[in-house]
Amino acid sequence: MVMASSKLGSKLIGLMVICVMLPLVGCRSPQSYRQEADEVSSSILDETWQSAMGRSEDGFTIEPASDSLRRRLMLDQNLPMRVPASASSSDDQLIKQWPDDRYFDERPVVENAKVIEIPRFTLIEALQIAATNSRSYQSQKEAVFQTALRLDLERNEFRNTWRGVADTILSSNLSATGETNGILNQDSLSVSKKFKNGSEFMGLLAVDLAKLLSGSREGSTGIRLETSLSIPLLRGSSRFIVTEPLTQAQRDVVYSIYNFERFKRTFAVGIASDYLSVLQQLDRVDNSVENYKRVVASTRRARRLADAGRLPEIQVDQSVQDELRARNSWISALQASEQTLDRFKMALGLPTDAQIELDPGEFDILLNSDRYARYLEPRESMADEEVPPADAPVILVPPSIEDAGPMEMPEADAVLIALMNRLDLRVAVGEIVDAQRGVAVAADNLRADVTLLGSASLGESRSLGSAGFDDAQVRTDHGFYSLLLGIDLPFERTAERNSYRNALIGYEQMVRRFQEAEDSVKFDVRSVLRTLLESRETIKIQAESVRVAQRRVDSTDLFLQAGRAEIRDLLEAQNALNSAQDALTDAVVNYRIGELELQRDLGVLEVSSAGLWTEFDPNDYDIEEITAVLQSMRPSDSNQPNTDATKN
Predict the structure, then answer these.
(1) DSSP assigned state of 472
(2) Do the Cβ atoms of 547 and 378 come closer than 8 Å?
(3) Which residue of 162, 176, 261, 421 lies most exposed, with the fewest beta carbons within 10 A?
(4) pTM (2 decimals)?
(5) Which tens digit of pLDDT belongs to each residue from 219-234?
């Protein structure tokens, strides 16, 4: 009775293993795995973004838009394309083995995909379009997402890992003594676990169902339970060493977020710079058109004066030559504006042959803002100003900060803000700590291997050759147990020795890399501040130059009509006016771009995932508080290393 109960119990265990394993085989779709990966990565990124930046990143997704502006332009404007994927991956011709039927159905819809005959974009709209359509922007988001997947993979090393195997073998043995046919089911369920102290556990439950299909048709069940536990006692035994790959993966996610935030700021400033550059080129076209018209009018006047005998023919030829040069300048400006616009389309991720327009009102707002309008206001005649004698000492007046813009802060303050906020500098600081951990891991590898290994095996397996045996039983008093202490003395550690020395070298390299990054941050900030000052002074100079050039054109034209000037004088005055107008436009654009670049280099320009920015207000920062924080990080005057700071 006991024997029958034991056999029944073994068979029930075997059936239980099979019932557990079968639902797990081939039941999940690729779509469910993709969605699970997205959920895991999103959870990791939400948590890390909050801890690294103090805020969440709303709207972060790597899914391309289902109907992007690029696609609408390609279709609505009937632009040529090589394959459907030119419009979007959603239109691509998929192979018949494509595994995920709903891959394209779950993509977001964007508002800026609506296209009119020739769409016109403001600067803000261009930033949003770039965040949705730019290829480089999408690649950066995917890089962040992939670091989260790598972290999940490292976390998986310390989870319970389940594996199930079910094999069915049908065999036939034809020999001189007779024929033996049989079927053998071998099912196993195992679990393994790696602990953060370096220990590793493995458990295996295996069930064999052996049945002869010929002869006496005997059958029996085998059941086997195996466990093992490995515990390192010296090398690789600390939590710090074992979890180093996990720690590095966690830090890599933080670094990727820092790099993405830095990229967003650089990207937004680049898009704004390109946008203003296109408007700048269009303004050059307008200036060249006006100059061309003025020169044509001057040539016609010169022709009439020459016909009347009031002007030499040589001066008419001079005017014709200037007319030809003006036409050439106009054509060159047109082509340059088209080239700049095409480059801007590529930066946005739009087809270069698409027809789009930029809002010229953005440029008018820039020129008419209070910051620059005061320089462009008409001034009274300078004739009444007192002019010093020619032999009087010349006193040069350096640039003043009295009319400086809000971003033109003292260099020392700007450097402090940048050191506190630059995210790429935070990455460089973190890499020093990473290198220190690498030294500690390399030093641990120099130690001896001392491992305690325990194992237990209960029960028996079955095959067709043992089909006639009784069913196996799991009994603790009939098992096999072992305990092993393994010691590998560190006699040969050449590779480990070199790795340790290389780790120390790598640490010093990271320190130097950080020093270079810090110096580059200071250089960037100081350079942009100089650019702002120069551009502001250039605006004042060129605004005055435009006024002077306009007066010169008007007066020279009157003198020419009175016969007191030559046509060359008028042509030179007109060229000077055109050059001054272009230079003034350049200075205004350079100043605005400089403001954005300074905020980028200070690390204070906030940019959302949608591409929208929030500009910096210098009044929001307490320089004394920043100074106190950075002062607390300074090393002591002693030559001894600051071990406490190193530990922190």
Answers:
(1) P
(2) yes
(3) 176
(4) 0.86
(5) 889 999 999 999 999 9
449 Cβ contact partners less than 8 Å away, ≥ 6 residues apart: 232, 234, 235, 236, 486, 487, 488
Structure-token pair, residue 560: 């020419």
Lowest model confidence (mean pLDDT) among 40-44, 99-103, 342-346, 411-415? 99-103
Residue 541 lies in a domain: no
H helix runs in 167-243, sequence order = 239-242
Q: Is residue 471 part of a domain?
A: yes
Is there a domain that residue 592 lies in?
Answer: no
* Cα 210 from chain centroid (whole Å): 58
With contact defined as beta carbons under 8 Å apart, do 532 and 407 qualify? yes
What six digits make up the tokens of 98?
Answer: 């494509």
How would residue 3 be classed by pLDDT, with cut points 50, 70 and 90?
Answer: very low
The predicted structure's pLDDT at residue 11: 46
**Partners of residue 166 on adjacent β-strands:** 187
The count of structural domains within the chain is: 1
Residue 214 is part of which domain span? 1-26+161-194+199-235+450-488
Q: How large is the C-alpha radius of gyration of the chain? A: 39
In a domain, 425, yes or no: no
Task: Enumerate residues 6+ apart whose C-beta is below 8 A from 18.
Answer: 166, 185, 187, 207
HSE, side-chain direction, 13 A CA sphere, residue 549: 21
Sheet holding 178-194, edge to edge: 161-175, 178-194, 200-212, 219-232, 449-460, 480-488
CB 287 within 8 A of CB 578: yes
For residues 227 and 458, the answer to whether their CB atoms sit within 8 Å is no
Q: What is the tens place of the pLDDT at every residue in 566-624?
A: 778 888 888 888 888 888 888 888 999 999 999 999 999 998 888 888 888 887 777 87
Of 157, 149, 248, 154, nearest in space to 198 by CA = 157
Alpha helices, DSSP H, located in 56-156: 69-76, 123-133, 135-156
List the beta bridge partners of residue 553.
none
Token pair recorded at residue 256: 């990727």
